[in-house]
Each structure stands twice: as C-alpha cells, then as structure tokens.
C-alpha cells in the first residue's frame, strides 16, 4: 500500500513539475518569437534606410542595386519612376507573387504616388513599417518610401520582407527544447524518487515492524489455539454430569473458533502486505465452480430460512484463466456477508454478467443494504457497519481480504444497491 502511495506521489510530482517546465518552455518560445519579430522589424527598417540612401545618390543601375539586396538580404522591392512606370520589380520565390503583394500593400498601406508630387518640391520620405498577409497565410513587412535623387529624379519604392512563420521557428527551436525537456524529466524523475524514498523510509520501517508483529503474532497464536480446541474436544467427548460445565466448554469452543478465524484472516492480510500470496493460474470451469459454491451455502441458508438461488446463463461460459481457489474465496466472502445481513424469508441470488472482454460474478441480497455513511469505508480493514459489534461472527476483514484477492487476480471489485433494498457485490475478471 505504501509503495503504491509512493508511486502515485512520484507520478503526481513528475506530472506537476513537467507541466511547469512545459509552460516555461512555452513562455520562452513566445519571448523568442516576439524578439524575432522585433529583430526583423529593426532589420527591414535599417535595410530601407540603406537602400534609400544609396538610391538618393542616383546610382547608374538601380535595378542591379535592388537585385543585390534581393539576392543577398532577402529584401524584395518594387521601384517606380515619376510617371508610374515600373523600373524594377523583384521576382522572389514566395507563396504569394509580388504583383499581388503590391496590390495588397496599396489597399492597406498609404503609398505616395510619384505623379501626385509633380507640382510640389520633391522630398525623400520613408514611411513606417506595416504588415500585410498573402493569399496563403504568409505574412510580410512592408515599408513604402518616396525618394528624391541628386539629379532631380523622383522614385516610389515599396520594400517587402517575408516574416518567418511560427511553425518554421518552432521547428528550428524544437531540438533544443526537446533536449531541455528530457533532461528536466530525467532529473525530476531521479530527484523525486530519491527524496520520496528518503521521506518514506521512517514510515516504511514503522509499518514493516507492525507487519512483522502481526505476522508473528498470528503464527504464534495458531499453536495455542489448536491445543485449546483439541483439549476442549477431548473433554466434551467425556461424560459430564454437570450441564453447566458442558455449556462453558461450548462457549470456549465457539470463541476458539472465532479466534482461529481471526488469526487466519490476519495471516492472509500479512501475506498480502508482504506480497507473499501465490497465484495458481488455471482454466476454471465456471459452471462447476458456481454449483459447488451453491451446494456449500445452500444448507447454511436453509438453516436460517433464507432462499438461495443460482442463475446460470443459458449460453456457455467463455474460457476463464485465473486462480480457482482465490476466486472461490472471494465469492464465499460475498456470500458470508449476504447470509449475515439477510433476514428470514429473504432471498440471495448468485448471477453472472458477461461483456465482450469481462465476466462479472454477482451476489445479490435483499437485506437492509449499506448505509450511505458506510459506503466509502466498506472495504477498509476492521471496519464494521455495526458499530456496536453485536454480530461477533465478523471482524471487518472479509471484504478487505476480497479486495486484496481481486487485486492479485487483476480483477475489479465493488458493490451497488439492490433494487428494492439490499446490496449487490460483484467481482469482474478479464476474459483472456
């Protein structure tokens, strides 16, 4: 139990801290993306200033100048003269062609036409950057400019710079993020394991000493109980003249039987705590198992005026490979509880329920049922719904033993209210 708790805590801590690490990496990528956008904006603005400065000097071949920037700096451009004639237009390998980008830029960004300035003094003017979207989810930075050269020429220039997509940036950053994530996972895994082992070690020592005591006490009690019961039986076989003595012997015998049952249950639970239970997997004949169970409890039910019914399915049962003795023990615990908490003239039913992958065994009683406040604790050790413990035949260990047995059989155990009153306990086993 403590190991399972330790494992759950370790899994919880790993999930929690890895979620924090993942969030940190997400924020880091977001900051990287914003920094990249800022750097790209600064870059295109610097390139625009440099290109404008060189065009103002009235170079002999503006198209060659702009072509170099396109080839080496990935800055694309459209250059027009004062008549609106295109002097140069880049031909980039982008998702959206430059003609379309130029039209989108004119529709979304104020671009001054050279013909609009023919009657005024030409002045070089660089506009601020803008952002436009292409036809294929591609995005671009755009900077318009009006350029007055030394020779008196006047140009209209529009510069484009493609924004890198977030997916492309993520692909470039992914290897480093994955390495950081894996290193963090390995560190958290081993650190959490080490710290939890250190934290649980004192508790494990205390629980282990308690388990050793219970196991030792249980085994040590078996021998004196056997001796007492044997001697009581010998005395009972002799002729006793005092009926009161016989009554006392009967009480001693009954209490010894109760104590023997308690010791047996404690030994079983001690074996479960130390993982010493053995499982003998074999093919189980379900019809034979249920009939044997019915024949074992039918006399007990008849003696208490309780009607026991066995409902076998009309279809043949699937092959079930499990420990037949452990399965019989779980169903016996269910029936013991059903008999104990059923009133006279009530009925108890043994049924099965089958799905494609599972087979469920049900023991249905029509007694007074389980109170709501008792349901969360019904499988706890030494828990009794009867707080006064007037029923001395139960110690509150049966259902906890059934739960442990179901666990080692890879099954699921539970209960539900019976329609009309009572409780239905079920065991579900996988069909292999």
From TrEMBL:
GO cellular component terms listed in the entry, alphabetical order: plasma membrane
Catalytic activity: ATP + protein L-histidine = ADP + protein N-phospho-L-histidine
Enzyme class: transferase
Gene3D superfamilies: 1.10.287.130, Histidine kinase-like ATPase, C-terminal domain
Bilayer-crossing regions: 12-30, 174-196
Sequence ranges assigned to domain Histidine kinase in this UniProt record: 216-432
E.C. number(s) listed in UniProt: 2.7.13.3
PANTHER family from the UniProt entry: PHOSPHATE REGULON SENSOR PROTEIN PHOR
Protein's recorded name: histidine kinase
Natural source organism: Catenibacillus scindens
């Amino acid at each position: 139990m403590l190991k399972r708790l330790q494992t759950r805590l370790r899994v919880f801590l790993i999930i929690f801290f890895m979620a924090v690490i993942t969030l940190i990496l997400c924020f880091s990528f977001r900051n990287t993306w914003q920094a990249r956008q800022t750097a790209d904006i600064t870059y295109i603005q610097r390139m625009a200033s440099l290109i404008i400065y060189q065009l103002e000097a009235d170079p002999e071949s503006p198209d060659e100048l702009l072509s170099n920037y396109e080839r080496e700096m990935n800055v694309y451009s459209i250059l027009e003269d004062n008549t609106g004639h295109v002097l140069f237009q880049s031909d980039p390998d982008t998702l959206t062609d430059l003609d379309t980008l130029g039209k989108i830029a004119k529709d979304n960004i104020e671009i001054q036409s050279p013909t609009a300035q023919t009657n005024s003094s030409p002045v070089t003017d660089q506009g601020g950057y803008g952002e436009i979207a292409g036809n294929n989810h591609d995005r671009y930075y755009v900077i318009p400019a009006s350029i007055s050269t030394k020779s008196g020429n006047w140009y209209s220039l529009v510069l484009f710079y493609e924004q890198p997509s977030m997916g492309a940036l993520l692909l470039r950053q992914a290897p480093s993020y994955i390495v950081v994530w894996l290193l963090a996972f390995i560190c958290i895994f081993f650190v959490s394991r080490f710290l939890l082992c250190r934290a649980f070690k004192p508790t494990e020592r205390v629980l282990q000493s308690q388990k050793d005591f219970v196991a030792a006490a249980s085994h040590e009690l078996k021998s004196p109980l056997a001796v007492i019961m044997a001697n009581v039986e010998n005395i009972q076989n002799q002729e006793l003249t005092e009926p009161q003595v016989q009554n006392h012997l009967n009480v001693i015998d009954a209490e010894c039987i109760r104590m023997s049952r308690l010791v047996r249950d404690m030994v079983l639970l001690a074996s479960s705590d130390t993982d010493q239970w053995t499982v003998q997997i074999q093919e189980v004949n379900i019809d034979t198992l249920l009939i044997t169970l019915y024949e074992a409890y039918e006399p007990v039910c008849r003696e208490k005026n309780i009607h026991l019914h066995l409902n076998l399915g009309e279809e043949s049962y699937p092959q079930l490979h499990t420990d037949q003795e452990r399965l019989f023990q779980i169903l016996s615990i269910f029936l013991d509880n059903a008999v104990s908490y059923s009133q006279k003239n009530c009925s108890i039913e043994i049924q099965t329920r089958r799905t494609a992958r599972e087979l469920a065994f049900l023991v249905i009683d029509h007694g007074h049922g389980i109170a709501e406040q008792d349901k969360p604790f019904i499988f706890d050790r030494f828990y009794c719904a009867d707080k006064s413990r007037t029923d001395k035949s139960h110690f509150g260990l049966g259902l906890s033993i059934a739960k442990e047995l179901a666990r080692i059989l890879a099954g699921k155990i539970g209960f539900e209210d019976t329609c009309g009153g009572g409780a239905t306990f079920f065991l579900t086993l996988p069909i292999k």
